[in-house]
Amino acid sequence: MEKLTLYNTLTRQKELFEPIHKDHVGMYVCGPTVYGNAHLGHARPAITFDLLFRYLMHVGYKVRYVRNITDVGHLVNDADEGEDKVAKKARLEELEPMEIVQRYTNSYRKNMSDLNVLSPTIEPTASGHIIEQIGAVQKMLQAGFAYETNGSVYFDVERYAKQHAYGTLSGRKIEDLYSNTRELDGQQEKRSGLDFALWKNALPEHIMRWPSPWGEGFPGWHTECTAMSTKYLGTRFDIHGGGLDLLFPHHEAEIAQGVACFGHETVKYWIHNNMITINGQKMGKSLGNFIQLDELFTGTHPLLEKPYHPMAIRFFILQAHYRSPLDFSNEALQAAEKGFERLMNAMALLKDLKPADQSTIDVEKLCRDCYEALNDDLNSPILIAHLFDGVRMINSVKDGKASVTAEDLEKLQQLYAGLVTDVLGLQPVSGTADGEGDQLFGQVVDLLLTLRQEAKARKDWATSDQIRDRLTAMGFEIKDTREGAEWKLKS
RNA sequence: GGUCGGUUGGCCGAGUGGCUAGGCAGCGGUCUGCAAAACCGUGUACGGCGGUUCGAAUCCGCCAUCGACCUCCA
């Protein structure tokens, strides 16, 4: 098994990854709140933890990967009275809340599948786990770390902090928190501004509501993750992931809830991905740079010069380390797009490279370098740099300037299939002459190119150029190579 | 205001005491009827000022600047 190290936010250092149960890994990642279309911000954690998921499986672990769908709760704060985010949107569009939830869940899954993000092995919804959440709240009440006021239940942070450390994950001190607490709705029900809701009493106009021992209401923001992670992964599991913005208060609350429920922390490794900026600015609705994934794929957002293929986006995200901030711009995206194509071209060439009886390239070292990069806290940019070194080798072999033995060639092919296709999850985007696609269609294009070749042979440039130019206009890319013409569809 | 993290060449983005990151663009070349594409080769850098050190982009301090979190957010 590879020696994988991961940066644990809890200890602020890289640690050797050792699963709690041999050969098995339990991983929980905070998923989307499905009250709107998925945007650029959703792509980063999805791809980051997809990479981790894929790599863990690649090196031989059996992984249970749980990523939740938040379809209840979450108070909005732009009105004076608290309102359920999902319910609010529903009223605006005059739809049932569950219709909204269904629509945006479908849309999220479609976007993720376009990005070639694998489905988690379990994708639980908050609304489907009300009973478990009520159970968790009861546990916290019994343990004396929660109290009820007017049909709502709050977590007693002060009480908790007397016995346990609160704020260790985000590096916060409880005294500092006191001085920085803002006046919020429900404050008068709380004993302290630091306390957070475990269960909220539903106002009469509130649409999404469930019966509970405290009356009709809905679960607090942090409750679902504690209830669902421990239900499927046990009360002590390996990895909990999410965006850096969730560090406080969400993950801090989760730690406290876990300790309150089970008497010990539930998570061994906390992993956080960094955020995305657009042209150096934070992405936000008010800034007008809030880009949805659909807009990115179709190029319909005013900030975009052109559509970007999901694979180019995926490659772009993987070209930065997951703990670094990543800035989106047309220039950067187009650079990534070209680099991605270069890598895919080499992948295609690799399939039918001819072996020789000597290797002039060091495939063994390349393999080692690649795995070392991944093992070092999932350093995908370094991995990609090494893969590009390999691209140069592949092209040189193709040009006859370097050679590989049959054995090395197989190693090389396995390396690229394993790391590029399986672990990085990168796939070619357009049909090529030898690719998938419609076979007949390919044969027709080949026929046209044969005719063009014949025209060229008798120096009938008018005919040959007409065939090429018309095909180009239709969106084909024609390449004249030593072995004859090749074609592919421009993405 | 508090806490934390950045500032690397034309652009993106790794690295973290001495040893080539990589991609894109640029430039030169190969191929070619022309073109496109592809391929090969190639360079300029580490926010400012001070300090530690034989040696610092890399460690320390101060300053500037950007961002994240502190309130829903991936």
What labels would you give this structure?
four-stranded antiparallel sheet; 3 domains; four-stranded parallel sheet; Rossmann fold; 491 residues; RNA-binding; elongated; 15% strand; alpha/beta; 16 helices
How is this structure best described in words?
The strands form 6 sheets. A 4-stranded parallel β-sheet has the order 4-3-11-12, with helices on both faces. It is built from 16 helices and 17 strands. The model is unreliable at 75-81 and 431-436 (pLDDT under 50). It has helices at residues 40-58, 85-93, 97-114, 130-142, 157-163, 174-180, 223-233, 247-262, 293-298, 310-318, 330-351, 363-375, 380-398, 406-423, 439-457, 461-474, and strands at residues 5-8, 13-16, 24-29, 62-67, 75-76, 83-84, 146-149, 152-155, 196-201, 217-219, 237-243, 267-273, 276-278, 281-282, 326-328, 476-481, 484-489. The protein is elongated, with a radius of gyration of 27 Å. It starts with a strand and ends with a strand. It has 491 residues and is an alpha/beta fold. It folds into 3 domains: 19-273, Rossmann fold, CATH 3.40.50.620; 277-423, no CATH class; 439-489, no CATH class. It binds one RNA strand of 74 nucleotides through helix 1, strand 5, helix 6, helix 8 and strand 14.
